[in-house]
Amino acid sequence: MVFLAHYTGGGIKTVLDLEVDDFFAYLDEAMELYKVEMKVPERVVVAGFEK
To answer: pLDDT by residue for the chain (51 residues), tens digit each?
Structure first.
């Protein structure tokens, strides 16, 4: 539920108030978004190496 609350942006109370069909519809959409985000490469800049 925390995962779904994060992706809907409404918080846990909003997720708890969803109808069962709506819950699974939102969950499916959130999982699709999560899969897309996982494929996006992340850039990391490392600076200031010390010896």
So the answer is: 777 777 777 778 888 888 889 888 888 988 898 899 889 888 877 777 766
Q: What percentage of the chain's residues is helix, strand, coil (to nearest 5)?
A: 65, 0, 35
Compute the Cα dihedral for 6, 10, 12, 14 and give only its sign.
Answer: negative
Asked whether the whole model's pTM tops 0.70, one would answer no
The two tokens of residue 1 are 């539920």
The single-letter code of the amino acid at 8 is T
Dihedral Cα 11, 31, 38, 48, nearest 10 deg: 10
